[in-house]
Amino acid sequence: MSWTGFAAIFVAFFLTHSIPVRPPVKARVTALVGARGFGIGYSILSLAMLSLLIWAASEAPYVQLWPQYPWQRHAVHLGMLAVCLLLALSIGRPNPFSFGGRRNDRFDPDYPGIVRWHRHPILLGLGLWAGLHLLPNGDLAHVILFGVLGGFALAGQRLIDRRKRRELGQERWHALDSARRAAPMFHKPASVRDVSFRIGAGVLAFVLLIWAHPYVIGVSAL
Questions:
Q1: What is the mean pLDDT of residues 121-132?
Q2: Distance, CA of 222 to chain centre
Q3: What pTM was estimated for this model as a whole?
Q4: Residue 178 forms part of a structural domain
């Protein structure tokens, strides 16, 4: 694949991520398939385009910037276990500060859970995923890939903060954020069973990622 083809797939990746979530487009699609249908469809599209983009990076001209060492893979393994746990503790939880929050009206800033540590835990997980994968992938195409995606995750946090301030109102947003930051770093979870299930799901997701890596990405993670 040429650099032009790689760039074209990169553009398509960002278009498929930005156009569907524009308010007029999202409203029309949601009216047709419902909020749940939109969420499922958008997730499938996002994963499909991400897989295509990763494949394109592997097919682009190889230009090495730094070599790969065994310790880099071990660092990625440990880091990805943390990422899987972070996402498992974040997805589907009340979070009025970020995207993807569920039952946000039930968010208790005095017991914010993982949101106490970061307003955007899912985007943080995606940023860590990208940063970790820079270590063993020192060729130009993958550095562009993971560098841009990591930057996208970081920039997205600021964009969502601005949007949420408009939606909630400055006073309400700052009051919630102040209460969140004042909460204990560690507190008893509302449901020990739910937290245990999520931790187990995170570990299972990590194992499945290791197993599926050679089939989905084409390279063994080990």
A1: 90
A2: 23
A3: 0.82
A4: yes
